Amino acid sequence: MPEPQKRQIACKVRISDLINGTYVKKEGWTPNYIITKQGKHISRINLIGTVISKNESEQNHQSLTIDDGSGSISLRAFEKNEAINNTEVGDVIVVIGRPREYSSEKYIVPEIIKKINNNKWINVRKAELEIENLKIAKLPAREEKVIIENIDNELEEQTKKTTNNPKIIYETVKKLDSGQGVDIDDIIKKTGIKEADDIIKKFLREGEMFEISPGKIKILE
User: Which domain holds residue 72?
Assistant: First the structure.
């Protein structure tokens, strides 16, 4: 079995960077990506935006549309997604996901969707991206570093609180495995995650884990 690619870093981008970029399809395990006009290759994204519409009538997927002030893009989940169910128009959310394209329309398959209580995070993200793109430090270097670290820490904490976070499952398997694999029941009990079984099945389908014996799994490294 081919060795899977390492999980890509979620790049902080504007929606307009995705919309105006060029989508590139790759073969095999190499992830598809978008090349922005600035030359950045993006296969995994980190966006903050406001939900402007929600469509619950799609036959084969759930969808909603977000806007970050630079443009709008749809999120499409092809498996049941409680986070989308619990999201309403007007909510500000952070999204971790993968860009995709169908019939020349770009969209995002979300991995994590988390509500943000303070709408000012949208403006903070805009300022952060301006600093990054223009390469101009408008704040003293130390102060800028602290602000960006605080942003990252806040979003990381919110992500950790997501009840069906696949990262928690992945890290738990890695921690508990002494070489002989880990019982699925032990993972479910240890994490207490409601949808742990579904997350594990998805890892197995994607080839990031394999079942070494009935009911016992390992990470494919």
Answer: 11-160
171: domain CATH number is 1.10.10
Residues 149 and 180 placed together within one structural domain of the fold: no
What is the count of structural domains for the chain? Answer: 2
Among candidate residues 70, 108, 75, the one with its CA nearest the CA of residue 91: 75
Q: What is the pLDDT of residues 128-157, one digit of tens each?
A: 777 666 553 444 445 445 545 555 555 555
Whether 43 and 22 map to the same domain: the answer is yes
Beta carbons of 119 and 90 less than 8 angstroms apart: no
Taking only the tens place, the pLDDT of each residue in 94-131 is: 888 889 998 889 999 888 888 887 777 777 777 777 76
> Within 13 Å and on the Cβ side, how many CA atoms surround 134?
9
pTM for the full predicted model: 0.56
